[in-house]
Structure prediction request, 440 residues.
Amino acid sequence: MKMRMLEEDELFPSTPGKVKIERVNHRQFHRCFASTSTMFLWALFLVALTASYLSFQSFVDTSSRYLSASWGGLHWEKQIRASAQPHRADAAGISVLVTGAAGFVGSHVSLALRRRGDGVVGLDNFNSYYDPSLKKARKSLLSSHGVFVVEGDVNDDKLLAKLLEVVDFTHVMHLAAQAGVRYAIENPASYVHSNIAGLVTLLEACKSADPQPAIVWASSSSVYGLNEKVPFSESDRTDQPASLYAATKKAGEEITHTYNHIYGLSITGLRFFTVYGPWGRPDMAYFSFTRNILQGKPITVYRGKDHSDLARDFTYIDDIVKGCLASLDTAEKSTGGGGGGSGGVKKKGPAQYRIFNLGNTSPVTVPTLVSILERHLRMKAKKNVVEMPGNGDVPFTHANISYARAELGYKPTTNLDAGLGKFVKWYLSYYGYTRGRKNV
Ligand SMILES: O=C(O)[C@H]1O[C@H](OP(=O)(O)OP(=O)(O)OC[C@H]2O[C@@H](n3ccc(=O)[nH]c3=O)[C@H](O)[C@@H]2O)[C@H](O)[C@@H](O)[C@@H]1O
Prediction:
């Protein structure tokens, strides 16, 4: 039967919203019913389509998370366990989770632990604060020595819980941080994210682990801020930070104290003094000066307001590593009971809480640093000497290390000249130079 063409006012009610009900007859009822069921079918179809789209989306999400996840699975756990296994002949080996393992200090500490037969698992987020390819190269070096480095962030509580569940780490060497004093002006949030939030996430995971590991972590000489008493001793005031970086490190010292006090975590904080050496950090002065001198580019040398030279207690990486290992070896066990839950972790007694300066005890001015580099590089620097901008720098640092010497047997042995010699040798070889000329 040929369908009657719909009259115009059936399609478009003359008064919007006002359908002329009185004109609905039997045939229209059928048509209406037919269109209702069509609408119902359409609605059903749309619901099914939406549901299948959503489940497809969640499938895509889950699988992409699974595919992109850099951790998890039986094979991964096996690798973690193998890397964490100590191999020391004296059976005194420790198992250390090193955060920031692809960083400068982290990679050196991980290697040193591995070389003496301790178990080491690394964790690093490979962020792009400086060239991540250098971090990848450090990771390759570590894996060639049997150290497995997990790619992940200390803010990832699930990852931390998993790592501490898979292995009963005796120690955590927490070196992951947002470093750099002056960069805090540009990116303050990154300091809060890594040095405050990341630290708390790590401490939460450690407090809940059973057994609880002892924690050794990197504070900084920058906590002394505007302190003028020299040399800097651990008991000096540290409530005048000159940069947000310093403030987050100082906050870290207070935060770790809280976890020590409430949960019995054994804590050792190390105030590093301007650490330098091979595989170093490209953002630091000695490294960027070397790069610029070799490339014939100018360097900027800061000086104090009264034209005084700035000075640092530059400390060679091998000395710092010895201080780190001695800290791990003398760290007492945590005293908390482990286990999660709100307030469910009780300490059985007071736990160790220590803070040490790890410096070199002989400050050197920045112009002297430059002249030592010039000698090792056999090239002259193009220097721009400018007044220190007010961006967080302090005029000088100088460590008193008697406490570390007494408790850790810490005794630095490399002076700046010898240390920079080793650094320059590494730099030329790593970046493919033959004495000032780059091999291409
Ligand atoms: O000891 C520490 O706690 C800190 O040491 C270094 O911080 P900093 O001493 O400022 O090291 P550099 O950035 O290498 O600067 C060394 C000296 O060179 C100066 N400098 C730096 C850069 C530049 O272009 N020109 C220049 O004269 C600085 O003012 C400073 O006096 C590290 O970068 C921090 O992460 C660390 O926490």
